[in-house]
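Sequence, please.
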């Protein structure tokens, strides 16, 4: 869930994929996503996750269980496919989900290859009404030039900085810096990995009004 720290309400959800292996049990994406990327299977997996998440969200909306947006992660390989925009539109139409209820999360690495093509695709998605978020901000290139031009509404602070922000001055400084950048560029900001009420309180005091994690 994506939580409004101020109101204490769920404002959206993020779809997370796990592999339920018949022998090894539940496998983290940290183990199987790199293999999927190397083999090229990540495109099929990513497209399946997108359609499944959209359809599931529509079901929950029809039942009155959720509102807001469903966030889906997009891999660099998936994003670079020539028919990516068509794939997104097809998922929306097939599931009956309005574009404003879909949020696509892209890492900084996505925009580092073929910036003109990237911007064209992002602008198309933006024109469709789909929300865009930069995921794991601060762990990659964090170029202010890209941040200035990308039509992304949301910046997500990586959990590696949030986790120790209460005991590590460097992590706290990075969190403050990302929040400051988001405010300066008039972007929303979501902190990931909020594992305690103390984290949530500190983030709200710093100006971060949205968060994800087991502690909220």
């Amino acid at each position: 869930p994506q939580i409004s720290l101020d109101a204490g309400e769920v404002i959206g959800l993020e779809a997370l994929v796990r592999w339920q292996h018949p022998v090894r049990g539940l496998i983290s994406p940290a183990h199987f996503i790199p293999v999927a990327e190397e083999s090229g299977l990540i495109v099929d997996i990513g497209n399946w996750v997108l359609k499944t998440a959209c359809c599931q969200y529509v079901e929950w909306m029809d039942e009155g269980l959720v509102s807001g947006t469903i966030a889906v992660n997009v891999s660099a390989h998936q994003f670079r496919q020539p028919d990516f925009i068509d794939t997104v539109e097809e998922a929306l139409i097939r599931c009956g989900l309005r574009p404003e209820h879909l949020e696509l999360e892209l890492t900084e690495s996505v925009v580092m290859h073929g910036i003109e093509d990237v911007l064209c695709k992002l602008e198309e998605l933006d024109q469709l009404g789909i929300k865009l978020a930069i995921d794991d901000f601060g762990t990659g290139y964090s170029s202010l030039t890209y941040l200035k031009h990308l039509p992304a509404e949301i910046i997500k602070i990586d959990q590696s900085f949030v986790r120790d922000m209460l005991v590590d001055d460097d992590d706290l400084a990075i969190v403050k810096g990302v929040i400051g950048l988001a405010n300066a560029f008039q972007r929303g900001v979501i902190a990931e990995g909020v594992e305690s009420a103390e984290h949530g309180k500190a983030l709200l005091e710093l100006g971060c009004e949205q968060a994800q994690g087991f502690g909220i």
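Strands lie at 2-4, 9-14, 19-21, 25-27, 69-74, 102-107, 131-137, 154-157, 188-191, 210-211.
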